[in-house]
Amino acid sequence: MKVYGALLALLQCTATILASVAPSISGPDKIYGVNLGSWLVLEAWMLPAEWAAMGGETCDDCSQCIASEFAYAQAYPKTVDFAFAKHWPLKDAGINTVRIPLGYWIIEALVDRKTEYFPRGGLRYLQRGLNWLKTAGIQAILDHHALPGVQTAGQQFTGRCTQDVEFYTDYNYHRALVWTAVMTTISHLDPSFDSVFAIEAVNEPIMDATKTPGYGDFQKNFVNCIRAVELLLGITVPGETLNFKLPSTNITDAFNVAASSSGSNIFNDEIRSVLKDAVPILTGIVLELGILNAQFPSALVHSQRTPLVANFMDINWQHNNPANPADAAIGPQGYDNHLYYSFGGVADPTEEAYLTSICNLQRVQADAALGNTPLWFGEWGLPTQFQASDEFLFKWADAQKLAYSQGKGWIFWNFKTEISEQAGDLSRQWSYLDGLKRGYLTQDPSQYNDARVCDSYRNSSTSKRTNQDLTGASRLG
Ligand SMILES: *[C@@H]1O[C@H](CO)[C@@H](O)[C@H](O)[C@H]1NC(C)=O
Ligand SMILES: *[C@@H]1O[C@H](CO)[C@@H](O)[C@H](O)[C@H]1NC(C)=O
Asked: Which keywords appear in this protein's UniProt record, sorted alphabetically (predicted)?
């Protein structure tokens, strides 16, 4: 036992060293991940006792009480330690990836303080947390989870519970692009952000594509924005070159030159306007975070970096003729699908129907047919619409992991939830760490309690499954 433990520690140590010296950051081969939900975008349902202690409220319609971050703008100081004090178990559990939900308000200059109320100071917590993750050899996806103007109605995860959805407008697309330009820049310049390999454009947009006008153009500009910044940092972007000379002074000067250059595909009018607006924001952030690299001639410093993965919810997240994010690709791209059975619309609420559905899941194949590869499952969990037995949860965890591993891998929602009287049984089906403790989830995430769990369920029902597959919804997280 002891010898085995020492060997394991040595292996983990070697893996960490390899991870931290590897020059390429295009992400792990297979993703075994967890979401760091409720760290920088607080969702009260996940921490009911803490929320009540903070003076927050709980109600059925979350727009009607103090149930979101917007409604309680002092959230950070209380929640930071909630997340990080207990992070080390993730490394021991073989987790190689985290998805970090972020609000647009973490870039404070983007908040219109006359009408929008959010806490300040998140960026430095993010920097500190990413530093810890880097030390642990865990790679990170920066997930734009709560968008300016709110991307979907009545959800705590957008930071503001409201029916007034205004993300799908030029003004708010622009703010999201400035956010993207800033995040891309610091991801490449600040060594604390070395573990970042992907930025996700929009978490869970409205599923009906007729209600998201302009989203296809936004997808293209999201990619243009990341690649424009990378070109300005001297990073090689496949198939793209600059048609103007970079100044050799510093980053913000390079942005200014690009903003006043003549347009090209990537540096179109909107992107040049985004770069211009990013300059004063970056000037402040470079000082605040103490980013020294911003002063050096970019091409010399950054030629070792590789382009970030541009990450989108997959095309099949939406229906009614959605834009295909694959059409936006320049350089590496990755796709995200979320699957929860507990909100209905996926399978009948029985053990048999759940396992039949998941064991025959065709989402990876359906996405691949539309160019949405690699696909990972960026949110899933163990919740069910029925009272699940322990015995079922062992199968339910294995069967989902098998299904999602057909693609690039999986990211569990959430790494933990509150354990308290108010929270009741919440953590049993929503917390990765609790699932490990209870044994549903295996210490080595690439393993299974029963790798043959699906054998007797595959193709055992009729074909009506496929359509349901594609419209099954997540409404939380
Ligand atoms: C870049 O240099 C200009 C002067 O040329 C200065 O005003 C600006 O603050 C610098 N930006 C950064 C990020 O250091
Ligand atoms: C199940 O059906 C799909 C498509 O109908 C097929 O591609 C697949 O090979 C089948 N799997 C098994 C285990 O029979």
From this structure: Hydrolase
